[in-house]
Amino acid sequence: MDYNFKAIEEKWQKYWKEKEIYKVDIDHGKPKFYVLDMFPYPSGAGLHVGHPLGYIASDIYSRFKRLQGFNVLHPMGFDAFGLPAEQYAIQTGQHPALTTENNIKRYREQLDKIGFSFDWSREVRTCDPKYYKWTQWAFLQMFRHWYDNKTNKAEPIGNLIDEFEKNGTKNIDASCTEQLIFSAAEWKNKSEKEQQEILLNYRIAYLADTMVNWCPALGTVLANDEVKDGFSVRGGHPVVQKEMKQWSLRISAYAGRLLNGLDTIDWTESLKEMQRFWIGRSEGAEINFDIINTNKKLLIFTTRPDTIYGATFMVLAPEHEYVDEITTSEYKKDVNTYREETKKRTERERMAEVKKINGQFTGACAFNPFTKQNIQIWISDYVLAGYGTGAIMAVPAHDSRDYAFAKHFGLPITEVIAGGDISQGAFDSKDGVVINSEIINGLVAKDAIVKINDEIEKMGIGKRKINYRLRDAIFSRQRYWGEPFPIYFKDEIPYPVDEKNLPLELSEVDVYLPTEKGEPPLGRAKNWKNADGYPYELSTMPGFAGSSAYYLRYMDPHNDKELVSKKADEYWRNVDLYIGGAEHATGHLIYARFWNKFLFDLGLVCEEEPFKKLINQGMILGVSELIHSITPYFLKDQPITTTYNYIWCNGIYEIKDKNGNKIDAEVYYSADMADEVLTNLNHLEDKDKTKMIKFNIPIYCTQDHTLFDFISFKKWRGNFSPTYSVFVCKDGYWIISGYNDKITKENWYPLNPKNNNSGNFFTTPIVEKLSKSKLNVIPPDNTYNEDGSIKQEGIIEKYGADTLRMYEMFLGPLEQAKPWDTNGIEGVHKFLRKLWRLCHGKENNFSVSDGEPTKEELKILHKTIKKIREDIENFSFNTSVSAFMICVNEFTDLKCSKKKIIEPLVIILSPFAPHIAEELWNQLGNKESICNAKFPEYDENYLKENTFNYPVSFNGKTRYNLELPMGISNEEIQDTILKHELSQKWLDGKTPKKFIIVAGKIINVVV
Questions:
Q1: pTM for the whole thing?
Q2: Which of 262, 344, 607, 699 is the most exposed place for a label (fewest CB within 10 A)?
Q3: 51 contacts 581 by C-beta, under 8 angstroms
Q4: If you classify domain 281-468 with CATH, what class do you get?
């Protein structure tokens, strides 16, 4: 039989499922290996060929480790909460659970078709109450703990209360929102409400007023990566900065441990550097500056206390709590206007726009305790409320942003570090000598820092401090489709839901919109209260809540008593290999590491770092196709199209059909003539309004960068397309009417009547991200029109899953971006067909012999085994595919189809192409799945070279090659060369002056 990949793949996918081949349990008789993929958000669009790249890589490695005898945990689930499903629910009225379920079914169907070795018995879905019970449980643990800087770990809140009752805050060194001071007596005299408010200052999960990205149109807070240029990524709605009461997680308490932990894990250095920058460790000092005419002190953090004599003004974040209080009446209006403008920009945008200079004087001044001068206090958006103290002492002579600010507003600049030219710019150096600074004059910076810090502490105006850029994670979202907080409110104070009542499940609402009062959608729920009538929290948790510990739940997914049992955790321990996108470097990967460290503090997990090794797969880029048109009018909110009854191009002045009737049509131009059309635009009416435009069209209408399916194109255009469409080529044009025209000579209008050949209409290809919006996505399987007809043929239906898997690996190194090119897939498919023919012969009958392999055949086999093993271990899967192709070509040339060669070959191929490997393995007479085979060892003896093919040169020029035995003596080599018939031509009867022989490399005869 021929290589019927459809039947083979369906057969073995069914077998694997029925036999539960990939199901794993704890097995102390085998070493464990845990491979994890970043689980997907199931969108309605389904998978495209870019999505499985990382999954294929992890699947290859999982199968490889299993063949090596490891007990491999390779689970999969769905990150199923989120804004897209909620927005779709708002638009359609469907419950997000329904659309999410449908999307998951589609994803699962596609993933199964690709043949992944996932243990689906461990599937988790973040929207399943049985799963988010444990997200709620973890939140409650954070609510019930505080971070003790002395023990450097999370401690029960009860310990903190006991200390308050005995000694007040005297012995407390905590990570907290605000440093509080009170005695034991003062604590005991406070009301329950006052005590609970104080505890919120210390809890790891706490409620506080926080500046957030607020999107009024969506009615919710957005994360920084959900905002771009002041607008929401989803929907393009305006986003403003707003102070709101939000739940936050005190991730900043773990900043030092998150930083140090990077040295213990096998991640790429670039990814580690991204996290190090995000965590942002700084050593410096906190210093208090008195604010003139008030009793307030302005606390700042600086990494360069040695430059304090050069501090000539102060800058506060516009959101700083003192701004309202210190701003004078003269500047009130201007300050308020500036603050309103700042609200329109996210912190990320403010950090990025380093060249933008703006600010506003408050009218207030601070006192520099070293220069004894009053210095102005300004506000500017380049200072962030969440970093340091939200205020800086500006030293313009030695900081570029301060320098630009001072120059722009005419503020004083005082040089305190020698070596630069402050007339030209700031001199930011730690190597210079301090000047104009009294007590530290003449010292180099590092010594000056030590001395000035001593003086600051001696004066009682500050202290040494290590600071981190990492800020606490805002944990509230004003959405419906997310985990409910297990919190109720009594007297406006949050209290935890009893753990025995978890999960607290989402309640039904009439619509998924904020209430008329502006409350989150859960404000619409009936009886959203506990048994005592106290209201539950109305916000829900963010997307990262469900993904922060899912890897732990996979270890023990059906345990209804605990997140993960001690037995399961101590066996699986942590993730040995994690594969996912680099875009999660400063989001999910930080949060998950924090979450794990917190659970480690509680003794609930045995490893402090969750992910031992991390690989970021590169992006598969798509080839988009653009079509050219010219438009005389740009109409707001109207599609780009051309609707006029004549054109100028290659002698065409009017568009007429075969009957000579003028027609109104949209007109498009083949890419090879677009420049010519553009040059002649002045021949058109309304030329000032006319220009050439190009836009993306569906790639399924194209082939080899030509538009070949005009009807599909018109169907895609739909109501935007008039009855007639004209496609102008170099040598003529097509006129297509309606959606049913067949492409025949009747549609073709040649410019040269003698030339009746149909012309090619070319599109313009560009490489860009695979995206539904770019119309360039390629589905792994078929997609269908509403009438059931095939809209776009998938790779699996056309070539098979094994071809898809191997081709995605063949595209290039795993961690690099690479363009998808369907033309190259044929070569991979031909390789699989060649392997099939090798085992089945010309008659397509299985014909593997029991003969003994030759040395040459064994050499090819063992060379390939070694190569594939090394490539998999180094994640060099693209070179593995090449090695397989070379190997099968060599065996085909040798007509080798011996069982002792084919059997190990299909084993090493099985991680890459499991379906064909399983079929051949079965045909070879094996009763168990190839998944239970053993990865073969290579024998170095077969790899040793017995001969070497020497290039033989005469006077330095290679004239021929000669294969000689390894180990042959120089005398024997010389004698062989002299006797060789080809040598006679180049010796020309002369006696060689000298032989230069480098064993295993070259032979050169000097004549």
A1: 0.85
A2: 344
A3: no
A4: alpha beta
Please report, for the chain, the start and end positions of each structural domain, with discontinuous segments joined by +: 31-138+544-621, 281-468, 626-769, 823-943, 947-1006
Tally of CA atoms within 13 A in the half-sphere of 670 that contains its CB: 20
Order of strands, sheet of 174-175, starting from the edge strand that comes earlier in the sequence: 153-156, 145-148, 174-175
Backbone dihedral angles phi then psi of residue 626, each to the nearest 5 degrees: -110, 145
Provide the 3-class DSSP secondary structure of residue 95: coil
Cα separation, 145 vs 156, whole angstroms: 4
Q: State both tokens at 30.
A: 């085998």
| Phi, psi of 630, deg, nearest 5 | -125, 145
As a CATH number, domain 31-138+544-621 is 3.40.50.620
The per-residue pLDDT for 778 is: 87
Cα angle, residue 918 at apex, residues 914 and 924 outer, rounded to 5°: 145
Q: How many CA atoms lie within 13 A of 755 on its CB side?
A: 11
* In 18-134, beta strands by DSSP E: 32-37, 71-73
765 within 8 A of 624, measured Cβ to Cβ: yes
**Considering Cα of 174, then 180, then 181, then 186, what sign does the dihedral take?**
negative
Torsion (CA) 423, 427, 433, 439 in degrees, nearest 10: 80
Q: Quick one: how many helices (H) and strands (E) in the chain? A: 30, 38
CA 202, 203, 204, 207 torsion-angle sign: negative
Domain 947-1006 class in CATH: alpha beta
Give every residue of the chain whose pLDDT is below 70, as ranges: 1, 225, 234, 352, 354, 631-658, 664, 678-691, 719-722, 740-741, 752-757
Tell me the C-alpha distance between 762 and 82, whole Å. 41
What is the structure's pLDDT at 681?
Answer: 59
* Joined tokens for residue 127: 């929207």
CA distance 600 to 595: 9
pLDDT value at position 82?
87
Choose among 332, 338, 300, 301: nearest CA to 319.
Answer: 338
Encoded tokens for 676: 């010519």
Q: Following CA atoms 813, 818, 819, 823 in sequence, which dihedral angle do they give, to the nearest 10 degrees?
A: -10
Superfamily of domain 823-943: Isoleucyl-tRNA Synthetase; Domain 1 (1.10.730.10)
